[in-house]
Amino acid sequence: MTTILITGGAGYIGSHNVKYLREKGYDIVVLDDLSRRFADAVIDAPLVKGNIGNAALLDKVFTTHHIDAVLNFASFIQVGESVQQPSSYYLNNVGNTLVLLDAMTRHGVKKLVFSSTAAIFGNPEYTPIDEAHPKNPINPYGRSKWIVEQLLQDYELAYGLHSVCLRYFNAAGADPDALLGERHEPETHLIPLVLQAASGRRTQITVNGTDYPTEDGTCIRDYIHVEDLAQAHWLALRYLDTHQNSAAFNLGNGSGYSIRQVIDMARAITGCNFRVEFGPRRNGDPSVLVADSNLARQHLGWNPKYCALEDIVRHAWAWECKQSR
Questions:
Q1: Is the dihedral of CA 29, 34, 35, 38 positive or negative?
Q2: Which domains, and CATH codes, for the chain?
Q3: Which Gene3D superfamilies match (predicted)?
Q4: Catalytic site residue from 20, 90, 141, 306
């Protein structure tokens, strides 16, 4: 049986991957320092508490568990924080990842699925955004991810370490069984913020900018269900089993929803008429971010199941109802 090391596996996307891959029959080991994540999010897998920057701990994990492949989710992800604290983002997202890559090389582990981001593209020159779009990240978070993608190219040439980089657009939703969902401290993502306003855990939701060149004046984003992301990681592992080359794929639905549409859908599903405030634009927010995911569909066989905004919000609301009890 294949054993997968999932770093950052107690986080939002990582924990959903743990559950998904366990259901597919994989043995899973989770490594997470729990600095920004939750131990109870790890379902049916051993949890090793620690940081991927700890080389001695990594040697112990790789020796004890005979790891076949790695899924790396151990990154800081807040754009605004990365601007204020670039040092911590480069140290964690780049420096610690180098320690992980070196440990993989020492132990002969040649397969890595890397959690990347649409932030590597920066302000879009065209939409939908395909893999050939210029990479011009505009914040330390996006730059840290792009640096790692380039490092992986070098590690493949030098050490034969093959990787698949998955560039998410807007991860959203929750486990359809409501066993897992989105938890960030602080929360910065739109859908959980809106649903916290609906449940009463938040007094209001603030919309930043209503004068964008879109149909209703608010930003349009490409939301992708976290379960569909988990499917993509499983398919990426299978790709690495059958291909002796690295690859990178954009992951999104290929259609966007505006902030007003998300709010309207949340009101329809929850039945709550929560308070919405309108403020000025935030610096660096493009009006439209939508993915072209044709390569992932062609080469991975990826077929997202929950493309409808209604499914994404409904699953997230079931999770929020559990959290707000």
A1: positive
A2: 3-172+223-251 (3.40.50.720), 190-222+254-323 (3.90.25.10)
A3: NAD(P)-binding Rossmann-like Domain, UDP-galactose 4-epimerase, domain 1
A4: 141
